[in-house]
Amino acid sequence: MSSISHILIAGGGLAAQRCCETLRARGYDGSIAVACAEPVAPYDRPPLSKEWLAGEPVDPALRPPGWHAEHGVELLLGRAARRLDPHRRVLELDDGERLRYDRLVIATGSRPVALPGLEGFENVQPLRTLADAERLRGALAAGGSLAVVGAGLIGLEVAATARRLGLRVTVIEAGPAPMAAILGAEAGSRLARMHREEGVDVRVRTTVERALGSARVEALELVGGLRVPCDHVVVGVGVRPATAWLEGSGLDPAAVAVDELGRTSVAGVSAAGDAACRLDPLSGRQMPGAHWESAVRGGTAAACGLLGLPAPAPAIPSFWSDQYGVRLQCVGDPRAADGVAFAGDPAGRAFELTYMRGGRTAAVLLAGRPPAALRAARDRIDVQSHDHPRSIAA
Length: 394
Ligand code: FAD
Fold this sequence. Notes:
Elements: E1 6-10, H1 14-25, E2 31-36, H2 67-70, E3 73-77, E4 81-85, E5 90-93, E6 98-100, E7 103-106, E8 110-112, E9 124-125, H3 130-141, E10 145-149, H4 153-164, E11 168-172, H5 180-197, E12 201-203, E13 208-212, E14 219-222, E15 227-229, E16 232-235, E17 239-241, E18 256-258, E19 269-271, E20 276-279, E21 286-288, H6 292-307, E22 318-323, E23 326-332, E24 339-344, E25 351-357, E26 360-367, H7 373-380
Parallel strand pairs: 1-2, 1-7, 2-3, 7-19, 9-16, 10-11, 10-16, 11-12, 18-20
Antiparallel strand pairs: 4-5, 5-6, 8-17, 13-14, 14-15, 20-21, 22-23, 23-26, 24-25, 25-26
Helix pairs in contact: 1-6
């Protein structure tokens, strides 16, 4: 159905998996190879901070063993892309092997931002990969105290899971409230209250001054002098696209911009998922991926682009998070808002925040509502409200 016969995907996570599935479902019968730095077949990351981390018997694998062989997808696991020569259409792996392609899809996801001063300690870690999660699960099983630096989505989920397992937990956040930069002050203060009710020591408007200890951190000293004793530390202060390896390729290693079909500015090269900055049809801005749904959509769109199919319908961005059995679902871009309306029980955990911009609905945050409520919320978003995003005022 097309003249392409060798598709190579760098990175083997959610976006790569969806790209493979769409290619096969839409009739592509040429070769597909996936080169992934991690030594495991594509798996889902959300359980790694939730059920899986808590020790529940969930399998994060995206497809059963054998799926890739059955669908003619060659997995090159434990092999990272290190250089791209788009003129020769060659991807070089970290073991020196050079792979030729007709089309390349960059799907290398994102990498956690490290905190200077906390690097090199035995008991400090990020949470991105299954290996990170295995390490953290072991640490949580030992009990004791956990310090979480950064009250973003992953930090808060780790804090909630660690409390469920009975650890003493301190969350350290530079901003005025958890997730305030994304969800605003109202949602942030509700999240802070929920975590405090669950026994988390939430410290906001503060940062780590220094780590005390030699090989292991024994305590974190915060600005102002407070010492937080800890057996283990999780750093969750954000992610950046894992695209540094594109240096010298002609693509910007800091932000790989793509169109609605995942195509980059370089011939024969597409990108998807957290590694790509997608053109957001609502705002016209290039937005980096950072959530599950955009990886699914990006992988699908890239496959459509490779096959010359029309782009899937544009979608309003959304993400979810689970903390203490409360599902948070956000649709739209709350950062575009100039006001917030609250509905629900002021003292409870089930509520709805409607983020307005210029009198129109820009985003909706649902807490403790069934997943189906997201569909109704999505219908309320007014596309024009996203024209000129700026900082949230709430
Ligand atoms: P990834 O899934 O990160 O896959 C990229 C793969 O490429 C990785 O295996 C990586 O090792 C590999 N790679 C990196 N560099 C190279 C290289 N040079 N060469 C080859 N391979 C490379 N989103 C939500 O919406 N809701 C949630 O509740 C939620 N929970 C999350 C919990 C955790 C713990 C994490 C880490 C993320 C969570 N997310 C959540 C985000 C979501 O999982 C990601 O947005 C999604 O996984 C992105 O998919 P991806 O395919 O772009 O990247």
